[in-house]
Amino acid sequence: CSSDLSSGINAEYGQLEELKTELSNLQVQKVTGGATNKLSKIKDVRKSIARCRTVLRANQRENLRKFYKSKKYMPLDLRPKKTRAIRRALTANESSLRTLRQRKVDTHFSQRVYAVKA
């Protein structure tokens, strides 16, 4: 499943279903007292299922990111994590904004420049 990332999603779902049925068969054999070589295969099948699901989830998230790229809001789990403080900090634009009064003060009482004679 992980090897064919570019293959169709339906093929990956099909492979996932095959692995699930194989796992259920192996679990039945374990209960009925099957061969030991079959029992050791259970772990491999479970890991393969996990790999398959990981690939499917990655594709799904990638498609969702593309979908929400042009939207105003994005689901929380697709947003960058960072830290809580960074997420709440003012943006560069917000921090550079000044009130009308502050702009007036800046224009009327600008910083004086003095030339110091050496």
Task: Give an overview in words.
With 118 residues, this protein is mostly helical. It has six helices and no strands. It has helices spanning 9-32, 36-39, 41-68, 84-88, 92-96, 100-108. Helix 1 (9-32) packs antiparallel against helix 3 (41-68). The longest helix is centred in the middle third of the chain and has 28 residues, at 41-68. The protein is rod-shaped. It starts with 8 loop residues before the first helix and ends in a 10-residue tail after the last helix.
Short key terms for the protein model shown above:
118 residues; mainly alpha; 6 helices
How is the topology of this model organized?
Layout: H1 9-32, H2 36-39, H3 41-68, H4 84-88, H5 92-96, H6 100-108
Helix pairs in contact: 1-3
In helices, the fraction of residues equals: 55-70%
User: Main sheet?
Assistant: none
Alpha-beta content class? mainly alpha
Shape: rod-shaped
Order of helices and strands: HHHHHH
Straight-line N-to-C gap: 77 Å
Quantity of strands, as a count: 0
Q: What Rg, in angstroms, do the CA atoms define?
A: 30 Å
Percent strand equals under 5%
The mean pLDDT is 89
Low-confidence stretches: none
Number of helices: 6
What's this entry about, in short?
The protein has 118 residues and is mainly alpha-helical. The protein has helices spanning 9-32, 36-39, 41-68, 84-88, 92-96, 100-108. The longest helix is centred in the middle third of the chain and has 28 residues, at 41-68.
